[in-house]
Every structure is written in C-alpha cells, then in structure tokens.
C-alpha cells in the first residue's frame, strides 16, 4: 500500500510531498491540472512574507515576530487563530534554506515593490520558477506525480482516511494530505455564497478569477459533507481590484491595478466609496476586490493624474487618458457633472503636507466622507488617467479546521492520518483581509508540517522535526 497520498499540485502540496519523501515515505501526488497548467495559484505568486530579526540576504532590516503578528492581526480584524498564525510566522523564518535545497532561488525586491523589501523575499523567476524547482526536486527524489487526476471524493471512516476515488479508480494510502485549494473557480458555489444584492444583481457573475480554473472546491465540499469541521466565511477571500479587461482565469499578478493609493476610486455613479490611503498598499490591496464587488455593477474606476505616473508598478494595458476631467468622464461613460464635482470636492478637502509614498505621510483630507488618510494630493495635473476595475478573486477562505499538526478535525477531534495544507485550510489564519505574501507563508509552513506528519502516521514513527 502507498504510504502518503498528496492531493493537489501547488506550493503547499509540493512542500508536503517533499517533506514526506525526505522522511522516507513513498509518495504519490495527484494534480487535477494538465502538466502545462500544474501548480495552481502558486504559479502566479511572487514572494513569501518572512519573519527575521536581522537583515538576511535579500531581506533588509528586521521584521520580528510580533510585528508580523500585529500586521496579520490588523488586516484580519482579529479573525484568526493566533496559535496557528504564529506557527506560520515562525516557520517563515526558517524555511528558506530548505527551499533553496530544493532549487528555489531568491532575489531582491524590484522597483515598484520597495514597500515589501523588508518583509517579503521574492522568488527569482516568480511562482512558476518555484513550482518548477519543486517538481524537479520531487522527481529526483522519487515522488510520483499524476496529472489530469481529479479526485472526486475521499473514503473516510470516522475521520480516518482509507482511500481516494478518481471516478471508478480507488487509491489507498496509509495517510493523506489534502492541498487541493479553495472553491474560487466554482461559479455556482460563488453565486450560492454571495447571493443577490439589494439591487437584484448577482455579484459573483462579474468576478474574475486571477488564478487557476482547476480550484473547483470538490474535495472541500466533500470533506464538509462528510463532517469535517468548518472554518471561515464563504464570502471572505483574497480579492483584488484588477483590470476589468483581464481574462476570466489565470490573469495573475499582471492584472492588478496598483495606483489606487495615489488617486481616488469612484463607482458607476462617479462617487468615492472608501479611503484609498488607509494604509500601505501591500496591506490593503486585497480588500479592494471585495469593495468593488459591493458597488453597483461590480465595477469601479481608479483615477490618477500625471503626478502619479512612475510611482507604481504600471499595468499591462494602458488606461483611459484625457486632458480634462469631463473628457475623462465621457470616456468612462460616467455622469460628467457628478464626476467633476467628486474630484472638485476631493481636491478642496486635500491638506498639504510632505508627500512621501514610502511612509504613512501627513497628506490627508479634511471634512470629506469617506476621508483619504494618507497620500492625498489634488488631482490637478493633466493628463488624467483612469483604469476600470473588477473584483479579482485569488482564493477563498472557507476551509476545514486543523490543529498545529495540520490534522483535519471531525467533531472537534483530529484525524489520525488525514492532513490539510494551503488554501483548503488557510481560513484558520485568514478570517478576512490579507497582507502581501502571507498565503505563501501559510502554505509553506503547513505544507511542510502536513507532509512530516503524514509520513509519521504512515510509517508509524514520530514526526521529524522541521529544520531550516
């Protein structure tokens, strides 16, 4: 009988497979995607958020545990399991040497990403290079991989894993790691979760999926139906405001619009609806998809003037451009008078200070609702630019409850041989919100933990300690 079955093909799954193999287990990976599309959402990632107490190669200064924890606590609004969150944080300090041993390379932050030069380690070649490195290492170690292998259901007995079913094929294993992602690619489940809004619209119809089309949530649904303890809100997700022209799937990082904090954002009624300068963009970019999802027609428009050009990572596609505000409104199909008044009110409310996009500066608005807390400068220098925004869903936060061993819980009791890692359990740490790179921190930490624990369960010996 097979020792460890890993279901999934992204970062968390490969970390689990490599750890289990290093512990001496025979490992089979089942990836639902074809080989050319392997890796899930991990192929679109760029970096890993890392705790460190002093400068480390590509990381500058220090980013201690408590600061990481406070950043996470802030963006989640307290909707997080502190014990599990701190496990991910602490593992982020020691995982990179292990990653390097499996072929992953790092590079310094690039222009336009300096906000995270202290907190995040960037992968050389991005997520695709990371995934390819892990697959090469897995192959060299003897991990078997099957592609186009969609698992329909798990065979469980009171929380104990027996086998996985692929159609009529039954695969037995002594232990299993589920790392098969969330349900963000399942449009019907998104419709079910979000329902209609007050205007009778179905917001999920206008969602674009930034990552893989293969995250249908099949095993997540199966586990919940079989009594796995549930964690998270099905409407909470990593949701970014992306270019409205992005493809339905796999647009990735290049579809993101990063100039929000340098201007204003208006809805279809040409009115602002949230504080664009609330905090640093890496701590707020992943709430803007949800904010846009709540607007009429699930669309917004990021507006900047010439002063902002060169201060953010430019989008792939050019936005609308005009020399006057009313001309820009016409290009966008917005009410000209309302749009011009919105900008005028914003400009009048701006209070001059020392503008510095690298810090939480003192440029703010007064007497304006919603306010703009930082980086508020009048939009008064043509040409003016606009980018249409849609909600871009990266991954969902509904998942299964796990413990420090990554064991899936059933009725409050941990399974003895079924473990979970990655998006399928990220809701234990991410109840809402996001901060750049933390998804990879969670997936790497709990992927490695799950793999070590699965090997221990299969081989009936203590789990190997995780070392850097």
UniProtKB/TrEMBL annotation:
FAD-dependent oxidoreductase 2 FAD-binding domain sequence ranges: 3-430
Cofactor(s) recorded in Swiss-Prot or TrEMBL: FAD
Domain of life per record: Bacteria
Entry-linked Pfam families: FAD_binding_2
Keywords from the named record: FAD, Flavoprotein, Oxidoreductase
InterPro entries assigned: CobZ, FAD-dep_OxRdtase_2_FAD-bd, FAD-oxidoreductase_2, FAD/NAD-bd_sf, Succ_DH/fumarate_Rdtase_cat_sf
Keyword RNA-binding: no
The name this protein goes by in its record: FAD-dependent tricarballylate dehydrogenase TcuA
Source organism of this protein record: Castellaniella hirudinis
Annotated gene: tcuA
């Amino acid at each position: 009988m097979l020792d460890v079955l890993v279901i999934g093909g992204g970062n968390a799954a490969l970390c689990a497979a490599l750890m289990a193999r290093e512990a001496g287990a025979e490992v089979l990976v089942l990836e639902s995607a074809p080989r050319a599309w392997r890796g899930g959402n991990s192929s679109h990632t760029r970096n890993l958020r890392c705790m460190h107490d002093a400068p480390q190669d590509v990381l500058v200064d220090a980013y201690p545990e408590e600061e990481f924890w406070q950043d996470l606590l802030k963006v989640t609004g307290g909707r997080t399991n502190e014990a599990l969150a701190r496990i991910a944080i602490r593992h982020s300090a020691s995982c990179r040497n292990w990653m390097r041993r499996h072929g992953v390379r790092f590079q310094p932050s690039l222009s336009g990403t300096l906000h995270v030069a202290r907190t995040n380690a960037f992968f050389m070649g991005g997520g695709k290079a990371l995934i390819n490195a892990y697959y090469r290492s897995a192959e060299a170690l003897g991990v078997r991989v099957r592609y186009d292998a969609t698992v329909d259901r798990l065979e469980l007995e009171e929380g104990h894993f027996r086998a996985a079913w692929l159609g009529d094929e039954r695969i037995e294993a002594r232990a299993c790691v589920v790392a098969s992602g969330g349900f963000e690619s399942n449009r019907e489940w998104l419709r079910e979760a979000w329902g209609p809004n007050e205007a009778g619209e179905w917001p999920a119809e206008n969602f674009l999926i930034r990552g893989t089309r293969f995250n249908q949530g099949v095993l997540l649904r199966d586990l919940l139906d079989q009594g796995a303890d549930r964690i998270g809100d099905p409407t909470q997700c990593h949701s970014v405001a992306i270019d409205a022209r992005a493809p339905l799937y796999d647009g990735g990082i290049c579809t993101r619009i990063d100039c929000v904090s340098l201007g204003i954002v208006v809805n279809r009624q040409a009115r602002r609806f949230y504080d664009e300068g609330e905090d640093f963009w890496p701590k707020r970019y992943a709430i803007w998809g949800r904010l846009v999802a709540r607007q009429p027609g699930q669309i917004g428009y990021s507006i900047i003037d010439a002063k902002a050009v060169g201060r953010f990572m430019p989008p792939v596609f050019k936005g609308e451009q005009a020399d006057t505000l009313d001309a820009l409104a016409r290009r966008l199909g917005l009410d000209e008078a309302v749009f011009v008044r919105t900008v005028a009110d914003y400009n009048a409310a701006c209070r001059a200070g020392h503008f510095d996009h690298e810090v939480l500066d003192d440029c703010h608005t007064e007497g304006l609702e919603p306010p703009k807390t930082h980086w508020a400068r009048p939009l008064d220098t043509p040409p003016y630019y606009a980018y249409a925004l849609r909600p871009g869903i990266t991954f969902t936060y509904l998942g299964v409850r796990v413990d420090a061993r990554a064991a899936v819980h059933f009725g409050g009791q941990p399974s003895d041989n079924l473990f979970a890692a990655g998006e399928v359990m990220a809701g234990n740490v991410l109840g809402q919100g996001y901060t750049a790179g933390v998804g990879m921190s969670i997936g790497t930490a709990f992927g490695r933990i799950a793999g070590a624990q699965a090997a221990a369960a299969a081989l009936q010996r203590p789990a190997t300690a995780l070392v850097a």
